[in-house]
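Morning F.,

Quick status update on the modeling queue. The single chain you submitted on Monday has been processed. Sequence for confirmation:
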Amino acid sequence: MTSSTSGLTLHQRPAEVATANPQVRTTFWSLSQSTLTYAELRERSVAAAAALVARGIGRGEPVGLLCPNAPEFLIGLFATTTAGGAATPLPLPAGARQLASYPARLAGIQHRPPSTGSDLSEAAA
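Structure tokens below.
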């Protein structure tokens, strides 16, 4: 079965995989072969999702993910979708030249409430 034919959502599929294969390890080669079992990944994602919900993250709320190819990225991705939020990966600085201006760029990202149909029709007018 592939994820495209399973009928499961993004946060349901890892739960299914973790249940079927709890001891299988996923490897993050970019971090000197750091590994997590699927069960550990699921447990950490569910705990992080509960923390997001406790902080008010709900359906459709954008959540910025700023991290390299590491276990925390997958934990954040699955936690956000489990909480109902919209995971938004943020670009990491590509080098020293971008690093200096990076804090200012991140500070420019502001929370905006989700648009409603009335907001859209007003904007079109």
